[in-house]
User: Fold this.
Amino acid sequence: LDVTGANVALGNVGNVHIYGGTTGQLLSTDNLGNLEWIDLPTPDTVTYTANSLIQTNGVYVSGNVLSTSTFGDYATSNGAYVLTDGTGSAPAWYIDFDFLNVVKFNRVVMNINYTQSSGHTIYVQLYNNLTSVWDSIGTYTGLGSYYAFALEVIDEANYLDTLNTVRLRLYHSNAGNSGHQTSIDYVALEQSFQGPQG
Assistant:
């Protein structure tokens, strides 16, 4: 160990052992030259919940856009947005969600329950402002209970319009069956630092 003025030479790296601290901490100096363990900042996930929704076709049962803004509260009053397929021709229904003031996002997160025996396909779509078409980023069929999705979005640029609005759509591609019910507990966009869903 060599000390020269304010500089400290610790010798070969292989011979240096500094004990203390915990995972996620960094050894740093303050302005007085003292060493101390500090916590590294943890990146936060930024979440955007929907500002509005519009249901086309199907039969409305209960709930509103606020019913889709809190994860896991589906057992409470108005904790989910609920509709049935109705009996119309395809598409049985689709729901457009608008998200305002979105800066960046890299995934779509949802918690949904849909009649397990339906055999119908629901597309999760984002509106592409460059091509003026809906891009499908995932699908689901009958679920049987609430199921949480985390769908990755590699590049959000084409899905953000000039007002920083994003349009998401759930699109029921089959003809309706009045016995099939959808309950939407949660729909959100996230700018997340967590890895993709396994």
The CA atoms of residues 94 and 171 lie 4 Å apart.
